[in-house]
Amino acid sequence: METLLGQPEDYAVELGLKNSEGNPAYTGLDGSVQAVYQEGNLVNIVIQSSGEEGPSFHGIRIGMPKEEAAGKMSDAYPEIVDSGESIQFMNLDTKRNVVCGLNGNNVANINVSFLSDEEIGNYRQAREEQMRAQYIFPDSNSRYLSEEEVRGVETDRLFIGRNEIFARHGYLFQDEGLQQHFNSMPWYSGTVTAEQFNADAVFNDFEKKNAELIKRIEDEVAGTSNVPGQFIGSRGVYICTTPRSFTGKIEILSVGDSSIQYSLGALEMPQAIVTEEALITGNNTAQANLYGYEITFTWSDAENMYVTSAGELTGMDSGTIMEITTGMGYIWSTEFNRW
């Protein structure tokens, strides 16, 4: 019956459908099919018969399980809404709308119509609102978040909001609660392990800056400002878990009450490139400033550290320093910490 779409009213007669004078509805196949026309244009098709010999629409028939029907329809009708009592298939470009009434799990009838511009607009708006409701920060990948809006989010949701940025790129979380949360989101597809993930390569600038902002406010709101004895970072050598041209090597040389001393280098280099101090800004964070180039060290626990940066650095070894401090994961190395 899909061949009726886009054809003139005379085509219904060619298919053997009949109507009485003045009746806009054409029927056929013992009343199992009805096609309604207005001013010569098809506006509605209804299919009600069952069985292998009954009429079909885009391969679906009465009595077919809805899962099978969805498989046949999804190529040309990608928008699918399952209400339980019916399943709706839409193509917003062609404005075609197919609603299958259900009897249990099987198709009971097929109703084909055309969507108005208003209906399409309302559907798109509802879809956008539904999608946005699945995020804490729906557009953290496409604009810079303001400090005010981040501070307006509940503390426990900041943690989820920051990790949404990772989840968009298929990150597989080691935190069981986080993994369960994102598994419940229809947009999430976890495929990349922590060892494989390279934030610097996949994050755009919006995502990098927003992740840093959320983390900073998250720590402030959670009350993790620097208090002597609470800093969780460990002294020792940390090795990059996601190396690129160089395998980053960061050594925390000492931990004081308000600052740490660190050195930056690489396994491929005989000695450290730079040794500096970083200010402890939270119980798991420290920040350094190299001539305007800001480096943030963040520990998830005593042995795992994530390093991010902001700004530009010029001069000798600047490329290496930027590479090993931009969105890189590090782990405390037993091999290099045999005191």
From TrEMBL:
Origin superkingdom: Bacteria
Signal sequence range: none
Record-linked Gene3D superfamilies: 1.20.58.1690
Species of provenance: Schaedlerella arabinosiphila
Protein's name according to its UniProt entry: YARHG domain-containing protein
SMART domains on file: YARHG
Pfam hit, one: YARHG
Cited InterPro entries: YARHG_dom (IPR025582), YARHG_sf (IPR038434)
Residue ranges occupied by any YARHG domain in the UniProt entry: 133-219
